[in-house]
């Protein structure tokens, strides 16, 4: 092989090597890119509820603990769920509401992963059920929390399920944002809600934001189509992913559905 040919092949291989390097880096760092807890951290003293999970302490809040028919809230990525307390206290004054930060978020210890978050979510549901025996339990999941809530609904008796800006799967959303990457092969935490909820027959309300650029409406639509029982769908034509909670129509729909 001539020197010129070898040199040309070497230059031609550089994009392939660079692409492989990017894929390898993304594979090793993917959980640092998926989970964004940095802006949510608070002191344990600001919380009023603790759930022990092996060697990890999860912390959060409970509103109206003596009331009946509890509600569990699973928040979005990078969301400080303490900011949901005022809204949920106002909208659901006669129901207990449990808000617990994911591990690695808020005041909770540990490191987030799909398996850990889902296991923690089931433990929280079981703890709530032990505190409110023989009562229906509703679950709310927002964005990333919709994947957590969907898993809980597939494993436990959830009386009502609210999904705010939900996705069919995290892998499907990632493929939309990164079409040039082999997401199917490198993504470990997939939050596959579409498969988990395919046979769910409980009452579901889906909040869909028309201007959502984080979870494209097409991904939400695929989840809606896969549900065993048609959900109540609330469309917010002027809302984006991060402006849903300030929408009066959203608050009214949430209050009406959970009353």
UniProtKB/TrEMBL annotation:
Pfam name, any one:
Hydrolase_4
Membrane in keyword set: yes
Q: Tell me which residues make up the Serine aminopeptidase S33 domain.
A: 95-171
Keyword Hydrolase belongs to the record = yes
Q: Which UniProt keywords apply?
A: Hydrolase, Membrane, Transmembrane, Transmembrane helix
Among InterPro entries, the record links this protein to: AB_hydrolase_fold, Hydrolase_4
Q: Where are the transmembrane segments?
A: 7-27
Lineage top rank: taxon = Bacteria
Q: Name one GO molecular function term.
A: hydrolase activity
**Protein name per the record:** Alpha/beta hydrolase
Q: Which organism is it from?
A: Lysobacter soli
At the highest ranks, the source species' classification is: Bacteria, Pseudomonadati, Pseudomonadota, Gammaproteobacteria, Lysobacterales
